[in-house]
Amino acid sequence: MKKILIVGATSAIANACARLWANDGCEFFLVARDAQKLQQTCADLLARGARAAVPYVMDANDTALHRDMLQRCLGALQTVDICLIAYGTLPDQSACEQNVELAMAEFANNASTVIALMTQLANLLAAQRSGTLAVISSVAGDRGRPSNYLYGSAKAAVSTFCEGLRARLFKSGVHVITIKPGFVDTPMTQGLSLPAFLVAQPEAVARRIVAGIERKVAVLYVPRFWSWIMFLIRALPQPLFKRLNL
Question: Which pTM does this prediction carry?
Answer without folding.
Answer: 0.94
